[in-house]
Amino acid sequence: MSTLDNIEVDITVELGATTMPIHHLLRMGRGAVIELDALEDDPLNIYANNTLIAHGEVTVEDGHLRVVISHKAMRRG
């Protein structure tokens, strides 16, 4: 099992997405709000090395944000 200790996996959690011109992004300051295409109850997408592997939700416990996996993503192919 020690061989697995050296494998790196990039985990990404996507809350939502949006598209905007770069000049809008460059004008944003601290506290700016970016509207996403997801609602607060929509599931999060969880990616491992840019591959969708699961869906989840955000919870708060003892002041810490946590991502709880609700179900695995369906595999194609």
UniProtKB/TrEMBL annotation:
GO molecular function, one term: cytoskeletal motor activity
Coiled coil: none
UniProt cross-references to Pfam families, sorted A to Z: FliMN_C
The organism's place on the tree of life at top rank: Bacteria
Membrane topology: Peripheral membrane protein
Xref: Gene3D superfamilies: SpoA-like
Biological processes annotated in GO: bacterial-type flagellum-dependent cell motility; chemotaxis
Main location, first listed in the record: membrane
Keywords, alphabetical: Cell membrane, Cell projection, Chemotaxis, Cilium, Flagellar rotation, Flagellum, Membrane
GO-annotated cellular components: bacterial-type flagellum basal body; plasma membrane
Cellular localisation: Cell membrane
Residue intervals of the Flagellar motor switch protein FliN-like C-terminal domain: 4-71
Similarity remark: Belongs to the FliN/MopA/SpaO family.
PANTHER family reported for this sequence: FLAGELLAR MOTOR SWITCH PROTEIN FLIN, PTHR43484
Protein name: Flagellar motor switch protein FliN
Species of provenance: Devosia epidermidihirudinis
